[in-house]
Amino acid sequence: MTWCLKTAALLRPTTGVFRNATAFAQLPRYFSQTPRTLIDEPGKFTERSSSYMNSILKDSDSRSHNRRSSAADRFGSDMISPMGINGNMQLPKMGPTAGRSIPVMNGDLSGAINQMKAAMSKNNVKHDWRAQRFHERPGLKRKRLRRERHRARFKEGFKRMVNVIIGMKAKGY
């Protein structure tokens, strides 16, 4: 209750702007659990904090953007160039057949076919193909989706109940 009252006192708006700008600036500090420092005191935001920010800005301007001296400087460099450092990397295949293509490694055609079957069953391609074969009225679609959701929920509940019964049998009930 006191938190709401104090917050309301700090955030009382007048003409669309906070009446006390320093109170609004201290709001995060007000609810913080860490001890207060000199920077947190009102009117103390002068030389120490601003000189620190000036030194950070000065250091960022003075760095050469072309040199790469450490791993920290190279962080994200792979995002700059899609070819990477040596330029030998190939871009992934894009297009309508990108998700339906499986590479055949070392002439292992049967392994590639099995991998394709697994990907197709995981992505429910056969079900989608049957569903898209004919037009379905919106009302029938709602009924079908509700029926499928109910079956999935019932299946999960049934599995859970079977596991409870198996656990009870194991405990000797």
Explain this structure to me?
With 173 residues, this protein is mainly alpha-helical. Among the domains are: 1-44, no CATH class; 139-173. 56% of the residues lie in helices and 2% in strands. The protein has nine helices and two strands. Strands 1-2 form a two-stranded antiparallel ribbon. The longest helix has 34 residues, at 138-171. The protein starts with a helix and ends with a helix. Residues 57-77 are annotated as: Disordered. This is Ribosomal protein S21. InterPro entries: Mitoribosomal_bS21 (IPR052837), Ribosomal_bS21 (IPR001911).
Topology at a glance:
Layout: H1 2-10, E1 13-14, E2 17-18, H2 21-25, H3 27-30, H4 47-62, H5 71-74, H6 77-80, H7 109-122, H8 125-131, H9 138-171
Antiparallel strand pairs: 1-2
Supply the key terms.
173 residues; two-stranded antiparallel sheet; ribonucleoprotein; 2 strands; 56% helix
What order do the SSEs take from the amino end to the carboxyl end, as H and E?
A: HEEHHHHHHHH
Structural class: mainly alpha
The number of E-state strands comes to: 2
Distance between the termini: 51 Å
Helix count, DSSP H or I runs of 4 or more residues: 9
Basic shape = extended
Proportion of helical residues:
55-70%
Keywords: Ribonucleoprotein, Ribosomal protein
GO molecular function: structural constituent of ribosome
Family: Belongs to the bacterial ribosomal protein bS21 family.
InterPro entries: Mitoribosomal_bS21 (IPR052837), Ribosomal_bS21 (IPR001911)
Short description:
This protein is mainly α and 173 residues long. It has nine helices and two strands.
